[in-house]
Amino acid sequence: MIDVRAHIVGGSVVKVDRHFELGYRDLAYKVARDCLECSDVDYVIVSSALPELSAHQVDLGTHIVQWIGRKVPVARVESGESSGLAAVELAASLVASGAYRRVMVIGAEKVTEYPTYIANYFYSLTLDYEYEVLRGVSPPVYAALAMKELIKSGVRRDCFSNWAIRMHENAISVPHAMLKFKITYESFKDAQVLSDPLTLYDSFAFGDGAAAIVVSSTPDRNGSSVELVLSKTEVGLPAYARDSISDFIASTKLLKEVSERFKLDLRKTAVELHDSYTTYPIAILRSLGYVDDRCDLTEFEFLNTSGGLKARGHPIGATGIYQAYEVFKVLTDGLGGKRALSEYGLVHSMSGPDNLSRVLVLKR
Amino acid sequence: MFLKLSVPQFWRVKENQYKLVITVCSECGKKTIFKRPVCPHCGSGKVEYVESSGMGVLESFTKVYYKTNSSEDRLPELVGAVRLSEGVRLIGEIVGVREDELRENAKVEAVLRRYLSDDPYGVIYYGIKFKPVLTH
Fold it and tell me: How does residue B1 score in pLDDT terms, banded at 50, 70 and 90?
């Protein structure tokens, strides 16, 4: 656990989409250019998960700072789907230690350079290649098996649909969201099956993206900043080694701990939960006692205001930076017309099905 | 575009690909599939190894249509959670059965089958899959 005193003072994002005209460096340039607070930084951290696979590029961080014309030190962080929050944790540590004053964290990812089946393969490599992927296991397999477990334990199939429908509704008013359209319970009946009973509508959207935030030792003078008060990570067990595949022990433990410590009620808190598949947030919220087998989400006021990975989209190694930016916006200027008055905001990220879980706590 | 699987990479893990070895922790007593140096539950290095009989029960399964290569020949694949008779679970492909004939709680046994091959004339990599045990 890192108790940090650092501040997020600004940032920018591009719409998550199929940006065939933009590569990694172009995406990074756009967010660095459009982020006013990014002009004065003394360190850059680049967060991405796939450039070696999708762009044949090693040492992406160096090539990005050269391209965007910043003569400051740079490091790249890779931690699968949770790369973004790992990068924020490193930035906060650098600032809190006094080593650097202002760190720009850029998340950038390209997932549409190849046909979808190749992107699927790249994404599958977040699992253990030798002991899972070679054996025919891909991420939807775990999401499907966990969903079946939950259904056997009494959770209704509509429960997972509730999540997806809510995420699509949220995304409509978010400028940078990828899937800005509504879906209904009827939509699931004809949806493409990924791994039964899991469908395409239970899955995140693959999109290219880039996001930037600035982590500073001092708050912004205009008041548009939030304090970064906690970063914490928990490593879980491989899904096959758990008592139940739907046991999201690492995430549940982290969210329980931070909720107790900061007296957070997730129904009233600006929160971005990792929802690569609808199974996962439902399993976690159920374990925490927030939802029953019907999964009524109406009491959650600021639940994935962005639309989540499900509808905002999931540019794998950049997603955590989007999430941090989004909670920062919900706590300050607002996002998609929603502004929370709560004192705290929470960001949750996982890599794989709870193989690793991270949380950030932001304070107004 | 894909690099072929490295022969040494596969060769290094051959014991866990050709056999079902279980790690038994002398500290916490928990068993975990695959021969590994440390117990993933408690972190102890005091572990012993036993080889599974390869027999188990299919706890759950899913029909997978998620494409990760250009071929649709093998879709849908049947992938299941198998509880070995020694008590540990692993996930693996289920073969030798029509999808409409597969049932949860079916008895299954480990078989050696092809995982992938470099090309029609290249190295073929084999490993463990499962097939239902015939009862008649």
Answer: very low
Q: A158-169: per-residue pLDDT in tens?
A: 999 999 999 999
Residues of B in contact with A195 (CB under 8 A): 62-66, 79
CA distance A143 to A155: 14
Considering the domain delimited by B7-18+54-132, tell me its CATH architecture.
Beta Barrel (2.40)
Is residue B49 a contact partner of residue B36, using CB atoms and an 8 Å limit?
A: no
Complex ipTM tops 0.85:
yes
Check B66 against A134: CB less than 8 A apart. Answer: no
User: Would you state the structure tokens that stand for residue A117, as one six-digit string?
Assistant: 């089946």
- A148–B67 C-beta distance less than 8 A: no
Q: Is the pTM of this model over 0.90?
A: yes
Nearest by CB: B115 against A134, A197, A237 = A134
On chain A, the residues whose CB falls within 8 A of the CB of B63 are 193, 195-196
- The structural domains of chain A, with segments of one domain joined by +, span 154-203+229-363
Q: What pLDDT sits at residue B71?
A: 67
Residue B119 pLDDT greater than 80, yes or no: no
List the domain boundaries for chain B.
7-18+54-132
pLDDT in tens, A2-13: 666 899 999 999
Label each residue of chain B as H, E or C. CCCCCCHHHHHHCHHHHHCCEEEEECCCCCEEECCCCCCCCCCCCCEEEEECCCEEEEEEEEEECCCCCCCCCCCCEEEEEEEECCCCEEEEEECCCCHHHCCCCCEEEEEEEEEEECCCCCCEEEEEEEEECCCC
Q: Encode B78-104: b = buried (16+ Cβ within 10 Å), e = exposed.
A: bbbbbbbebebbbbbbbbebeeeebee
From the list B13, B70, B116, the residue facing A130 with the nearest CB is B13
A125 touches chain B (CB under 8 A): no
A194, B65: Cβ pair inside 8 Å?
A: yes
Assess if CATH 3.30.360.10 describes domain A154-203+229-363. no
For residue range B53-78, list pLDDT tens digits in order: 999 999 999 999 998 886 667 789 99
